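User: Some background: our group keeps a shared notebook of sequences we're curious about, and every so often someone picks one and asks for a predicted structure to add to the entry. Today it's my turn. The entry only has the sequence so far, pasted here. Could you supply the structure so I can complete it?
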Amino acid sequence: MKHRVIVACGVVLAAAQPALAAALLPGSSGKEPYTVDASKLDYFEKEQKLVYTGDVIATQGQTKVRGSVMTIYLDKSGAGGQQDVRRVELKGPVTVVQKDKVGTGNSGVYDKPENKWYLIGNVTLTQGATVTQGDKLIYDLGTGRATVTGGARTVLTPRDSTRDAARDTKEKQ
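Assistant: Of course. Here's the predicted structure to add to the notebook entry:
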């Protein structure tokens, strides 16, 4: 059976109740609720971490992340003793879907102090007909910049100019 934990108005509906003031997923905002669906949730109070297992799906706004295990590490530095998310780790295969972009990799990490998402191992980034592959993808949430390293290779598929010309002619008629 799947369990759902929703972070709304900065509160996780679980024993930890951490405050989330920032966007945790690429392309989302801190004002949108953060939802995690999984088969199981374990909360470790002493270690200040949440471990979701079994077909994990995290959603925030239009962005969705999938993995087999998601571990959220908390930090008690929030105001009033509230806990903030400081790090999220995903074991894969990991898939990140944001609008027309799809990223896949063996594992994923969100590092709050750096405000970056990482996809690691056998990374593929697809946007439309463009496919980029490499060993590691770094997505800076602040700038919206994606960097692929480790033998980066991109395949650009040009539009079919014959078909496009025929479509353009038909639209003018």
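Suggested note for the entry: Residues 74 and 85 are 5 Å apart (CA to CA). The first strand starts at residue 3 and ends at 8.
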